[in-house]
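To whoever is on call:

I kicked off a structure prediction for a single chain this morning and the downstream step that reads the tokens threw a length-mismatch warning. I double-checked the sequence; it's 473 residues and nothing unusual in it as far as I can see. Pasting both halves so you can look.
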Amino acid sequence: MEEKLIQRLESAVARLESLSTSGLRQSGLSEAGDGAPVDPSILAFDDFLGQYMSRVTAAGEKIGGKVLEVTKIVEEAFGVLKELLIKVKQTQKPDQAGLAEFLKPLNEVIIKATALTEGRRSDFFNHLKTAADSLSALAWIAYTGKDCGMSMPIAHVEESWQMAEFYSNKILVEYRSKDPNHVEWAKALKELYLPGLRDYVKSHYPLGPVWSSTGKAVTTAPAKAPAPRAPAPPPPPPASLFSSESSQASSSGPKQGMAAVFQEINSGKPATSGLKKVTDDMKTKNRADRTGVVGAGEKETRTSTPSFSKAGPPKLELQMGRKWVVENQIGRKNLVIDDCDAKQSVYIFGCKDSVLQVQGKVNNITVDKCTKMGVVFTDVVAAFEIVNCNGVEVQCQGSAPTISVDNTAGCQLYLSKDALATSITTAKSSEINVLVPGSQPDGDWVEHALPQQYVHLFKDGRFETTPVSHSGG
């Protein structure tokens, strides 16, 4: 008991020393006054960090590298959150612009964490993504009422962790038998939010932050004076076919391709007004440099020209109010469908190296011809279907009556406790693994490989089929 108390005091002293060097903390304390730091909710926040953050930091230090770097950013983000909680009690409730300015320090830290997940993919991408996505839970402090467009603070913390849990589960599966430090880091990070942050918010801010009625107002940054007009920049290059952001063509701008042809035809001008007259010496039959024989070099050049990709532009849209279409998304890790209902369906086609979150109950979801695609969904009324895919990961956070996998190589299914009664149908598929929660509340996921080889024996006038059982010898 004494050793635990000493460790807790040492971790508290280390946190206070690190925070004392932060300019943000110094300014926050000077503005907060003498009364705010001793507020019960602030003291409870210190106790909450001392109980949960120290485990995450200790595990991150054992791993080191990028994991330690992102762990320090998480610790910094919670330090910023504390400073904002102190300022809330000294500040009047701001308007929308003032709230954005008030939350700017927290937003900057979250951007710093997100930047680590971009660029060349790290060996610890799942760790970085888990930490970066989890920080959105700290935005509960932005809740200003039921009309602000956010969930209630407690629900917001839970929903934000569900977004990060997709990558956290990958860490648990990958390092379960390789390195216990990574497993400890993932578990400690989850407990930081659930139950840690959730219980703290539930105890002190269930309806959001309580602003001061007599404090000072939030001042927004003054608008900069317009700079002298500079010459217009050159037009941007054409967008890539697989651009992550779809662009809408402007109806007022100059049209290109076939649209330009039709615009010219509809303008009323003679269709041949801009064409040059072809003289006799320009005709192919009269040109001395042309013959009827095609050279071998020219033929080889023509046949070796690569063809254009048949993939269309990326889409994420609701069609006819009934069907969500997600097509040709490449490298998009933050696709979200949140405005859906039980009468709508979701169709995912031709996506690669992307992650889609369906936040809400829908009728059915189909994943077709996708590679390295991740899908996180809550509930489906009818079925979740995977067809003609390669390397798909699916996480069911609610329930699904049926999951079917057809003509797919490589599929991982994460089922929640509510989805254990799901009926799974497979056909012409391989490497299908189903992960279910362990028997203990905080236990590891248990992985089950579905059979892909069968033995057929003719007995008593009919065939009996049993899966092949492999045993080590």
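Update from on-call: the warning came from a stale cache, not from the record. Cleared it. Sanity check on the structure: The longest strand covers residues 352-368.
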